[in-house]
Amino acid sequence: PVPAGLPGDPDPEEAVSDDSSRHGGRVRGFPHERGNWATHVYLPYIAQEEFLELLELLVSHARTYVPSLAAMEEFHLSLSQCVVLRYHWIEPFVRSLRERLAAFHRFFCVADQVKVYTNQNKTRTFIGLEVSAGHFQLLELVSEVDGVLEEFDLPTFYKDPSFHISLAWCVGDLSGKVEGQCLRELQDIVDGFEDSAFLLRIQWEQIRCKSGNKYFSFPLR
């Protein structure tokens, strides 16, 4: 491997102070270091107008229980944890991903089960839509992504993942306020939403990898 931190390393990410007030009170899962690139592999979801209408209904109702909830602005389904890559690992990492994912075809899944999540260090709570169909294909994708992560001695995905699309978040562990009655009412909203069965049947067409400020796309066949 190339030694890290060589003079003139092409690293556009400047060191930043970890001021949580600048990003809604969120706390980093690991400290920012120059030359370390936060990296994440996921399936991007482009929200349609009907989905945003459903989102508005869900967040508005959930705020009667947790007023600090904020709606997500972008949507995705994770295939990896957020891991740290050195700059000189990015190109071989992406190349290995591209080779392993080249044979995969487009597929559908259904994300229609409302569920509450917290991150590992319990600093954030999320409301998401869990996948109820398409789990097998997602596990196959994760297996290939895990293989690449292992090549670089990086943490693999969770052993028994709950695949989901996050809809809203708040700071702190407020899962107790969402579970139970609130969750049942949110599920009723999803089940009763017009054309929800069609709306929440999602076709995945590409996989994406974000590393720092770089994005890489891997179209499914």
Automatic annotation (TrEMBL):
Pfam families: HVSL (PF09749). Keywords: Hydrolase, Lyase, Nuclease, Nucleus. One of its GO terms (biological process) is U6 snRNA 3'-end processing. It catalyses: a 3'-end uridylyl-uridine-RNA = a 3'-end 2',3'-cyclophospho-uridine-RNA + uridine; a 3'-end uridylyl-adenosine-RNA = a 3'-end 2',3'-cyclophospho-uridine-RNA + adenosine. SUPFAM superfamilies: LigT-like. GO terms for cellular component: nucleus. One of its GO terms (molecular function) is 3'-5'-RNA exonuclease activity. Interacts with PLRG1, CDC5L and PRPF19. This is U6 snRNA phosphodiesterase 1. It comes from Ptilonorhynchus violaceus.
